Amino acid sequence: MDNLAPQSGVVISVRDLRVKYGEREILHGVDFDVTHGETVVILGGSGSGKSTLLRTLVGLERPSSGHIWIKGSDIATTPRDELDEIRKRIGMSFQGGALFGSMTVGENVALPLKEHTKLEDSTIEIMLRLKLDQVGLSGFEDYMPSQLSGGMKKRAAVARALAMDPEILFFDEPSAGLDPIIAAGIDELILELKKAFEMTIIVVTHELASAFLIADRMILIDKGYIVAIGATEEMRTSTHPRVRQFLDRVAEPEVAHELDYLQMLTEDSRHAARGAGQRGEA
Amino acid sequence: MEQVAELGESVTSGLAYIGSLASLASRAAYFAFIGPFRGKPLRLGRIVAQAMEVGVRALPILSLITFFIGLILALQSAYELRKFGALNYVANAVAASMTRELGPLITAILVIGRSGSAFAAEIGTMKVTEEIDALETMAISPIQFLVTPKFLAMIIMLPCLTIWANSMGIFGGAVFGVAQADFTFGRYIRASIESLYIRDIATGLIKSVMFGVTMTAVGCYEGLSTGAGAEQVGRSATKAVVMSIFLVIAVDLVFTALFFFLGGR
After folding, report:
1. Is the pTM above the cut of 0.90?
2. ipTM here
3. A193-239, pLDDT tens digit by residue?
4. Which of A60, A85, A91 sits opposite B133 (nearest CB)?
5. Which residues of B touch A160 (CB under 8 A)?
6. Does the beta-carbon distance from A115 to B139 stay under 8 Å?
7. Do A100 and B126 touch (CB under 8 A)?
8. Rounded to an integer, what distance in angstroms lies between the CA atom of residue B8 and that of residue B256?
């Protein structure tokens, strides 16, 4: 097991991760590492398992087997009630914001601080102003979430995720449902956070433009397998057919038979092996 | 043979459902009674807010309904009592049926309609919009944050509402007593009070606490098991109401039988 243990500088280490919903396996053995301060974008189509991967990384789904080391603790084997200690060190921004509708923006951002720290109310007040300022929402603390636009909700959600000064920040579809200009603003925000705090950031998305803008490395997931993993430039120039199909936005050919599908998958992996070989030679 | 298997299956799934309710209730109870001594303080503000919503806001409609129920009870029992020339027993009849049975039950059914469905809808909506997931990733237990305040509010407010319902029912009966049975208002109330034993009121209140636990468990459980999509929230709210009414009446039967065999009057 020693060779599986994470090396130094590695913040998240995923080994042979499998996740099942009932009898159906969604992730069929996923391996990757994330090092400190890098921004990793997990790309994939609908139903590829990318959201399940993210939910598993933050402990919302339990893996059926495999390991997930986050800052040295394996959250796959940690009992549910001990997960909380790890969760206090991560932040998560949900697709729709997931702000509590019955609380103001300020109360939303202050909630983790009120729950987990013994800070004075006045200190919390200062911190929440700071966090709202970081996401460009200063002065909005007394608004209700329903009074905010989609982009502002996402910013408020990021402020809440930042409240506990997390070491790792997770984003689920940060630009989903936003117009291109507002989405670009969210990308800017992610880049700023990365620069200012050297935070480790994991983003799940299917928006290519935004992915290429913010990523240091990319992981392409398809049908529960990692198809390709590599630096942004490598992905852009990759010749792997599934990567090209995804990046060039080619529609899926109709697969009529299970066998055809299997063949397609094995061809994919053969291409991948050849691609890796070529890179090695170069 | 197949029918037997089907019967067995529905019995096990029914028992599993009750089991999930009990597990939810016990986890909520942990955060209500043990958690505060282990550094997980209760949220007084949230409990008070829930108590206002569950209890105080229900008062006007509850008063009206139980006043009518008291009046109806008086009319119905007078119909029989008149045959025996025992119309002056109408106060006893109304007081006993209100405090032992109808006060707790009508209150419970009204509160299920107002709050049981609201619990399921509120928690269900939070489930659909990923707010429950957000709580978990913030290391805040949804049970502690959402369910426990509802439980505490309910087991405090439902007995209070029941006491109020009992008195409104007796006032309703008094209207008949004064109009038709030669009572004065004061004499009717005195007759009611004299006819009651502490045990009548206490059994009603014990029942109402059990009703409160049942309906909160069902409402919160249905909310937490809401699937994806807005239409699932409606389904959860409906199921919460139907299941709560059924289970409250089942609990009522169990406790009424229990009190009867434990030396009832």
Report:
1. no
2. 0.82
3. 888 888 899 999 888 888 898 999 999 988 888 888 888 888 888 88
4. A60
5. 134, 138
6. yes
7. yes
8. 28
